[in-house]
């Protein structure tokens, strides 16, 4: 049976249907799966699909290539598109056969995303997404250029097989710094309950206070907006003794919109104590409830992290947590016109 390349817009009552559809494709689709579970949708959120998985006859479509995307262009310059496709899952079975329909579906999806209007640029959002360096000039100016160009959209955590299709079709914007830099997708599959760890003397857990967002953003090269950070589950670690104030955190981490372990950081003077692992376990143990209850559809608590291939220390943290490297993903600025 030949697959149609038509892309449908589905949303109003499709959330649970999509979760049930995607469950057999975990963990490959974990980013899209968790993004839908988290909610926090905006009036501009859209769900695009090549299959009508909400239809009573949708099971007959499982044997055909398909692609699904969640799109919210108000997130610029952060990730605007999360997607999943049937061919990504078959890679786990060492099946790398590329069908012509796959190219057609990617092409159709990009075309439909391009039809969605980009919300007017907010000066407040723009200001909170960039930083100034020591001499006061703007850093991350390629993200500023992204904000100014509504003809491109940032696709996040794109599976390597889909990234290759986007590249071969000429959709990737080569001016995006790091577009060809892979990230390792680590999967954490907690079959049983997650136990957090106690901290060394003088260290205490807390939350990331909004007053500390500037500190958080100053420690990462990835653009973060205050409006996003305030939505995300977070854990911070504070240190106090008779000499040191605990007004600012010395370590922090968030769970992303897609439940990924993100913006994990420990200040250099406090490294070597296992704080990153402790903080991560605290996040997983206490904050995954934001994405719904333990999920019987996938057999436990499944979450993930995306780690740059040259970030050895973060890779070690993930491995110490029992994470397994499944595949590679990319952040890609895609031309949608």
UniProtKB/TrEMBL annotation:
Listed SUPFAM superfamilies: Acyl-CoA N-acyltransferases (Nat)
Gene3D superfamilies: 3.40.630.30
Entry superkingdom: Eukaryota
Record's protein name: FR47-like domain-containing protein
Species assigned in the record: Aureobasidium subglaciale (strain EXF-2481)
């Amino acid at each position: 049976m030949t697959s149609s390349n038509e892309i449908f817009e589905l949303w109003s009552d499709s959330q649970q249907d999509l979760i049930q559809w995607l469950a057999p494709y975990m963990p490959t689709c974990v980013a899209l799966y968790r993004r839908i579970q988290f909610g926090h949708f905006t009036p501009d959120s859209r769900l695009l699909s090549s299959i009508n998985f909400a239809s009573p006859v949708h099971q007959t479509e499982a044997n055909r290539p398909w692609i699904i995307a969640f799109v919210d262009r108000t997130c610029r310059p952060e990730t605007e598109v999360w997607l999943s496709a049937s061919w990504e899952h078959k890679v786990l079975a060492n099946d790398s056969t590329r069908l012509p329909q796959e190219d057609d579906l990617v092409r159709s999806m990009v075309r439909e995303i391009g039809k969605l209007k980009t919300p007017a640029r907010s000066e407040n959002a723009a200001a909170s997404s960039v930083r100034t360096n020591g001499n006061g000039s703007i850093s991350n100016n390629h993200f500023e250029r992204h904000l100014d160009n509504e003809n491109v959209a940032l696709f996040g955590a794109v599976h390597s097989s889909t990234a290759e299709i986007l590249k071969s079709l000429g959709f990737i914007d080569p001016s995006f710094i790091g577009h060809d830099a892979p990230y390792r997708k680590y999967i954490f599959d907690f079959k049983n309950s997650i136990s957090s760890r106690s901290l060394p003397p003088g260290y205490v857990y807390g939350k990331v206070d909004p007053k500390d967002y500037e500190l958080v953003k100053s420690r990462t090269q990835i653009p973060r907006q205050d409006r996003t950070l305030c939505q995300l589950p977070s854990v911070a670690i504070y240190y106090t003794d008779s000499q040191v104030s605990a007004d600012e955190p010395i370590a922090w981490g968030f769970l992303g919109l897609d439940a990924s372990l993100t913006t994990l950081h420990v200040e250099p003077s406090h490294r070597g104590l296992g704080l990153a692992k402790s903080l991560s376990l605290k996040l997983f143990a206490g904050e995954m409830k934001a994405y719904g209850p333990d999920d019987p559809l996938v057999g436990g608590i499944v979450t993930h992290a995306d780690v740059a291939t040259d970030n050895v220390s973060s890779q070690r943290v993930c491995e110490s947590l029992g994470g397994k490297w499944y595949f590679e993903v990319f952040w890609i600025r895609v031309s949608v016109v």
